[in-house]
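Record 1 of the preview.
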Amino acid sequence: MTTHSPAETSRTPDETAIRALLERSCAAWNRGDGTAYGEQFTADATDITFAGTVYRGGPDIGRAHQALFDGFLKGTRLTVEIVDIRFHGPGTAVVVTRGDVHKGRPKKLGKLATYTVVRETDGRWRIAAVQKTRHKRLLEAISFRLRPATRPTAP
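->
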């Protein structure tokens, strides 16, 4: 997992723990280990996949991903780059990432994901929700050209 961020030099212990959480998630994916992947989620987590499938709860997320790892996603790797981490109180953060699933080297990181992560009562950070979408660069460029006011003000 790549974990670049403008604020890398000023990481707090919580940022470090959140980065480690996403690294564990990627490592489990890369091993094809659905159980370990599911363990990175809360018991009542929501995972909205790129295909639009909604899974609920770490155990079910892990079970379903194991079936994917044994089939369509066999031998794939997950690459994630953290774009932003924003804290909302002492036990909740929203993490925006760029990434992709690939075999071999990734050509581009064409998917975006928004993670809501929480610190649970055991002190560990886990994924409470994640939603993934494909970045449609051409559609975005057309929108910005035709309606410049649609361009975000922040990078």
